[in-house]
Write a structure and sequence with these properties.
By secondary structure, the chain is an all-alpha fold. Helix content is 59%, strand content 0%. The chain has two domains: 9-49; 57-114, 434 Repressor (Amino-terminal Domain).
Length: 123
């Protein structure tokens, strides 16, 4: 099993093609082992060359609201009054540490997303 590092786009495309051919490999076989190694190499290459930025905290909150059918009123236990919810969602006020903790505990939104910097609306 000769496997080489992925150093450029050509190597990357070749690895993706081979992964596709090996996708149905039976666990415990040499093909499955090769598949596992290629997937790790491709993931490392993609992480370096095609990083995915962390989502915007407010966009993440809005996504969770939409996905779960939540209203702005449903956010009041996590963010405060109706006015405070409006300020946060309209980017007039930043999330506080306490709000982040409550959103993580209550809605399961990862704190590492909520602590990301984001643009506030101009006053």
């Amino acid at each position: 099993m000769i496997i080489r590092p992925i150093r450029n786009e050509e190597d990357y495309e070749t690895a993706l093609e081979e992964i596709q051919m090996l996708w149905e490999a039976e666990a415990g076989t040499p093909d499955a082992d090769r598949l596992d190694v290629l997937v790790v190499l491709v993931e490392a290459y993609e992480a370096e060359h095609y990083p995915i930025p962390a989502p915007d905290p407010i966009e993440m909150i809005l996504h969770v609201m939409d996905a779960r059918g939540l209203s702005r009123q449903d956010l009041e236990p996590f963010l405060g009054s109706r006015a405070r919810v409006s300020e946060i969602l309209n980017r007039r006020r930043p999330l506080s540490l306490e709000m982040i903790r409550k959103l993580q505990a209550g809605l399961g939104i990862p704190a590492d997303i909520l602590v990301q910097p984001y643009e506030l609306a101009n006053s």
